[in-house]
């Protein structure tokens, strides 16, 4: 296995160069996937026979939820890399990804709540999914708050790494207990109907928007990481030259 | 090894009892928080009974968080924490002793106090043993997880509030299990399952939390 | 144009669908614009710093 790639990742300059080359492709992928997926989902996908047109919110709710959850796992992985290999880039990734993950959780919550009104009659229900998402948002806030509270960047990196790992270990426990709590307290009128299999005209645009959201997450993350890298390496020659070229 | 554990424990005990007021504070907080609820929602016993498990557990949670804030602070400030990190003895063991002591003077106290407040919140006497059992199994988890947060925020200015923000989401499974057990007991259903699950969490926390606490302390001290 | 107005109404669910999509669009745009703006600010700070050094 070629480990030189892994070691190159330790160099901020290498990351900056290579991300600069990859970014336009991710932007293109984002634009294509999201525009096709959303237009398809909004216009061409057939109505859901139970929920009518409000189900179209699925095309933004589900991708946001997926990204929100994957992002937290990414934070934990970045945390492990920070602690084990002391790679500064992993900390840059953790610090930059956390706010994006929080925003995605926010989108999932808001779209879930808006979707809930025509479906269940109220904007908020303490069902398992929304409650888990809310707790995930709190976990994100914790990581962001801890990162900002510690003034030494090095210490902050390690502390947020530990917190992310502790969080990710707890997430399955939290998820199971919330799911189970929901079954305890489900009112008798709330029927959990088995969903019929989605026809391809419905789930294919969902696949596109899911991929599109991941692509957009990557775009936002790379952009933020590039800015943060320039900021941290501000005193080096390559960073100064790069900034000079841009002005 | 055993000598170190004993010496450490005695040290914590002696230090704690030099300021007995500090030991009382979480318990008074617990009492006040619980008393706020009947004042807020009215003294109707049937309503209090339904709320009681939740109120007692949330109050226990908050009281534990409050008492954890200063867990490592005085050691950090006078430099003994640094000595612990540097010493040849395993930090995880020393940390475990410290948390165990903290639990003895806070969590265990809550277990003893809780039935009194349970009665005040109109809980029938036959569910009080369940209350004590769930708190007995749950408060160690609260102490252990909270100590992780205390270790990560040691030396930070906004410590207490940040600690609460970090740790409260992690408390949710214990909360759900503890109150679930109480609700089952109130309905006359068996609670063994809940107790076993709480025991599971306790064992998990006991084995994994000291690692995270030690890591957090090393990070905090190295600053 | 009844096709368009029907589309916008979404069978009565219009406000929900469109508000959800609008909020999402704003948040996503924010997540892309914010780093872009931050980068511009960094560039101008660097230019200012260089001018000060040359003096």
UniProtKB/TrEMBL annotation, chain B:
Its main location: membrane. Belongs to the CcmB/CycW/HelB family. InterPro entries: Cyt_c_biogenesis_CcmB (IPR003544), Cyt_c_CcmB_bac (IPR026031). It comes from Pseudomonas jilinensis. The lineage of its organism: Bacteria, Pseudomonadati, Pseudomonadota, Gammaproteobacteria, Pseudomonadales. PANTHER family: CYTOCHROME C BIOGENESIS B-RELATED, HEME EXPORTER PROTEIN B. This is Heme exporter protein B. Required for the export of heme to the periplasm for the biogenesis of c-type cytochromes. NCBIfam families: ccmB. The keyword S-adenosyl-L-methionine does not apply. It comes from the Bacteria. It is a multi-pass membrane protein. One of its GO terms (molecular function) is heme transmembrane transporter activity. GO terms for biological process: cytochrome c biosynthetic process; cytochrome complex assembly. It holds the Pfam family CcmB. The chain crosses the membrane at residues 21-41, 47-68, 103-122, 128-154, 161-182, 194-217. It is found in: Cell inner membrane. Keywords: Cell inner membrane, Cell membrane, Cytochrome c-type biogenesis, Membrane, Transmembrane, Transmembrane helix, Transport. One of its GO terms (cellular component) is plasma membrane. The keyword Cell inner membrane applies.
Automatic annotation (TrEMBL), chain C:
It comes from the Bacteria. It is found in: Cell inner membrane. PANTHER family: HEME EXPORTER PROTEIN D. InterPro entries: Haem_export_protD_CcmD, Heme_exporter_D. It is a single-pass membrane protein. Belongs to the CcmD/CycX/HelD family. It holds the Pfam family CcmD. This is Heme exporter protein D. GO terms for biological process: cytochrome c biosynthetic process; cytochrome complex assembly; heme transport. The gene is ccmD. Required for the export of heme to the periplasm for the biogenesis of c-type cytochromes. One of its GO terms (cellular component) is plasma membrane. Keywords: Cell inner membrane, Cell membrane, Cytochrome c-type biogenesis, Membrane, Transmembrane, Transmembrane helix, Transport. The chain crosses the membrane at residues 16-33.
């Amino acid at each position: 296995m070629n480990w030189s790639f892994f070691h190159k990742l330790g160099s901020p300059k290498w990351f900056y160069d290579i991300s600069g080359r990859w970014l336009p492709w991710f932007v293109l992928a984002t634009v294509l996937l999201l525009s096709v997926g959303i237009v398809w989902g909004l216009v061409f996908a057939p109505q859901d026979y139970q929920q009518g047109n409000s189900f179209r919110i699925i095309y933004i709710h589900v991708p946001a939820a997926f990204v929100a959850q994957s992002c937290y796992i990414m934070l934990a992985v970045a945390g492990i890399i920070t602690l084990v290999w002391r790679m500064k880039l992993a900390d840059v990734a953790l610090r930059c990804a956390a706010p994006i993950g929080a925003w995605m959780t926010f989108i999932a919550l808001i779209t879930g709540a808006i979707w809930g009104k025509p479906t269940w009659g109220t904007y908020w229900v303490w069902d398992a999914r929304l409650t888990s998402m809310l707790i995930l948002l709190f976990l994100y806030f914790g990581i962001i708050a801890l990162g900002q509270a510690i003034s030494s960047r090095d210490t902050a990196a390690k502390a947020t790494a530990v917190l992310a790992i502790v969080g990710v270990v707890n997430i399955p426990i939290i998820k199971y207990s919330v799911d189970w709590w929901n079954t305890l307290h489900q009112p008798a009128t709330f029927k959990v109907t088995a969903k019929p299999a989605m026809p391809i005209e419905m789930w294919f645009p969902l696949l596109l928007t899911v991929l599109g959201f991941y692509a957009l997450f990557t775009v936002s993350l790379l952009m933020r990481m590039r800015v943060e890298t320039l900021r941290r390496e501000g005193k080096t020659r390559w960073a100064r030259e790069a900034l000079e070229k841009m002005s | 090894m055993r000598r170190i554990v004993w010496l450490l424990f005695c040290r914590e005990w002696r230090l704690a009892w030099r300021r007995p007021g500090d030991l009382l504070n979480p318990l008074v907080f617990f009492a006040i928080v619980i008393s706020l609820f009947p004042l807020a929602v009215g003294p109707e016993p049937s309503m209090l009974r339904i709320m009681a498990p939740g109120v007692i557990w949330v109050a226990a949670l908050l009281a534990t968080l409050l008492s954890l804030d200063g867990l490592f602070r005085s050691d950090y400030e006078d430099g003994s924490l640094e000595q612990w990190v540097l010493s040849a003895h395993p930090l995880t063991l020393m940390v475990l002793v410290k948390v165990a002591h903290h639990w003895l003077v806070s969590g265990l106290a809550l277990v003893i106090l809780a039935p009194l407040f349970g009665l005040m919140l109109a809980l029938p006497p036959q569910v009080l043993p369940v209350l004590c059992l769930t708190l007995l199994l749950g408060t160690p988890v609260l102490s252990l997880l909270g100590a992780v947060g205390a270790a990560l925020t040691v030396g930070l200015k906004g410590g207490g509030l940040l600690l609460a923000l970090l740790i409260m989401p992690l408390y949710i499974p214990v909360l759900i299990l503890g109150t679930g057990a109480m609700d089952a007991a109130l309905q006359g259903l068996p609670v063994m399952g809940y107790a076993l699950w709480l025991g599971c969490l306790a064992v998990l926390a006991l084995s994994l939390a000291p690692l995270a606490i030690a890591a957090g302390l090393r990070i905090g001290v190295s600053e | 144009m009844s096709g368009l107005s029907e589309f916008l109404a979404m069978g009565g669910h219009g406000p929900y669908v469109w508000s959800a999509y609008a909020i999402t669009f704003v948040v996503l745009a924010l997540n892309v614009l914010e780093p872009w703006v931050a980068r511009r600010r960094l560039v101008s700070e660097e230019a200012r710093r260089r001018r000060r050094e040359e003096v």
